[in-house]
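Observation: inputs received (chain + 2-aminohexanedioic acid).
Thought: call the complex predictor directly.
Action: predict_structure
Action Input:
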Amino acid sequence: MAKQRKHIKVTYSTLGSPDPLLHEYFEEDVAELKTNLGKTYRMYIDGEWVDGDGVYENRSPINTDWLLGTFAQAGDRHVDQAVAAAKAAFPGWRDTPWAERAELLNKVADLISERLFEISAAVSMEIGKNRLEAIGDVEEAADLIRYGVNAMVDNQGFDRQLLSETDKHFNRSVLKPYGVWGVIGPFNFPAALTGGPSGAALVAGNTVVLKPAAEGSLTACMIAQCMADAGLPAGVFNMVLGGDEPGMALTANPDLAGLTFTGSYAVGMSIIKNFTTAAGYFRPVVAEMGGKNPAIVTAKADLEKAALGVMRSAFGLTGQKCSACSRVYVDAAVKDAFLDKLVDLTADINVGDPTEAETYMGPIINETAYQAYQDYVDELGEGELLIGGRTLEDRAGYFVAPTVVTDLPDDHRLWQHEMFAPILTVRAYDNPEEAMRLTNDVELGLTAGLYSEDQDEIDWFLENTEAGVLYVNRESGATTGAWPGYQSFGGWKGSTGSNKASGSWYYIQQYMREQSHTIVGN
Ligand code: UN1
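Observation:
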């Protein structure tokens, strides 16, 4: 039953000083989820909730004694069933007027907003995301869907008249959906990056099979429930659950017409290489891959702002955003002053249970990431460790300390490798050319930040940086925190498969193919 609550509109910027009721609602829903732990969750195929081949368990990274749920494990046959259901549902959905599709997807978005706190409690407990970021993730899912809907409405379904040779000719260009669209989601934005791309694919007229990250299964089930409750016809949206295997089965299915993948560079590149050509003709992949995002701090920076923005970006979500800041290049003249401030702010970070209001940094996602953090710290011994570099052994979950390292050799592999951990490497530079060369000397190019109060330096940064999302003097996050409609979010180079950003003008068109109609009358 819907709870009687005041509607609170959330974006990353309103989260800076949130309505006090937001805390009350979130706490109520965390308490409720804690009394409902360990339930069984099923997959959603052809309008039914179905069992799989066995089950898997999800435990909270905050406290591994908390069994969040037991989930149906998809075998290959379930993936095939989901694709077959989506294929059968496609003609009906494609032929549903776009305005009706838009209305249904708006309903999905509204249900997500209505269940904001319930879903964000799940995000926080299963991913370890702090309270405000968990709420942001869920509302971002709703806003990404709304953004796609509005794009269809603003463009009147992308049906446009072209020039006519004579008054007997009627010529037009129309964008049409592809067919069955796969969506493979990451663990770190289990709401936004499952709901957002699914919503875009659906409103464009495709049918969808979603395979969320196993770690984000509970959140994905709640998003799927919103799709079901909004009244999408059976087979239009389907969700299969499990780890890499169902994901691989999905990408190998010949009936898939297109795919959205969000995840690592290595997996993304292999999907791009295989999926796009396996059918014998080009199939589209919307891929959002990793980041190795730099911030440049010049001698003309406001160092308070720079330290705060870098700290928030490097350690928000425990460094596990593809948008996280993981490298800083600071003018040698202000290096010590900047690092003093940064280390002080890092020392003040509250690491703990992310459902608590005062916590900034929750745990890292799982045992593998916990181990990887320790391995990275060992490797970083070649530099100087300024703070962090240790696991917090006394906790019941996977807690690690935010870490800042300086003076790492330039050829160290961790200047290039995306760690997905709360580890920041900082290097001094002597001249702007050196800073820009280092900034661009990676195969990834998602986000980047600059701190400088000088307009010429700002212009230089905007002109020369090879990344898709640039921020200047942002206190709330040097390289993180894009919101649909406010920032386009998409990478360059190895961070993308398409160079078209989400939450912006050119995104939804990727889910459609163009057809030209020339009709000659009498
Ligand atoms: C990601 O980490 O995969 O700009 C995406 C941001 C978020 C998106 C991050 N809106 O930080």
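Thought: report the result.
Final Answer: The mean pLDDT is 96. Residues 131-154 form the longest helix (24 residues).
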